[in-house]
Write a structure and sequence with these properties.
Elements lengths: L1 E5 L2 E6 L2 E15 L2 E14 L4 E9 H10 L8 H15 L10 H8 L3 H10 L2
Antiparallel strand pairs: 1-2, 2-3, 3-4, 4-5
């Protein structure tokens, strides 16, 4: 994968094609009308054809704690979890081709980070 940053958008090349993505913010995760013990890190993703998708990377509260605990104490506003969400987005786009109106269950199966996945990502980053 290639990763090129340009004025708010990051370009990547995956086996599924080229994409540009931009972080949009962190919101509480809501599924089936109920708040979950998690947060959605929202990304806009633009594909080669110019189609725009909004992809949430769901990070559980436990996973956020793991990322923030490993991060520098000077980091604020969930910066470590945001970097992990971006890494998970890139990894997911390598295997998943975005499509309009994909259900949360399908997106979460590819992009979500739970406690076990967070520990795996932390080990990989060492």
């Amino acid at each position: 994968m290639t990763d090129v940053r340009t004025s708010g958008w990051t370009r990547i090349r995956t086996p599924n094609g080229r994409y540009e993505y931009q972080f949009q913010g962190r919101t509480p995760a809501v599924r089936k009308g109920k708040y979950e013990e998690a947060a959605d890190y929202l990304f806009l993703v633009l594909d080669e054809e110019g189609l725009l998708y909004r992809i949430p990377v769901r990070i559980s509260t436990e996973a956020e704690s793991i990322f923030e605990h490993r991060a520098d104490s000077a980091a604020s506003d969930h910066a470590a979890a945001m970097r992990a969400a971006a890494a998970q987005l890139r990894a997911g786009l390598a295997t998943f081709q975005p499509r309009q109106n994909a259900p949360y269950e399908e997106l979460d199966a590819v992009f979500a980070v739970d406690e076990a996945k967070a520990q795996e990502l932390v080990k990989e980053s060492k």
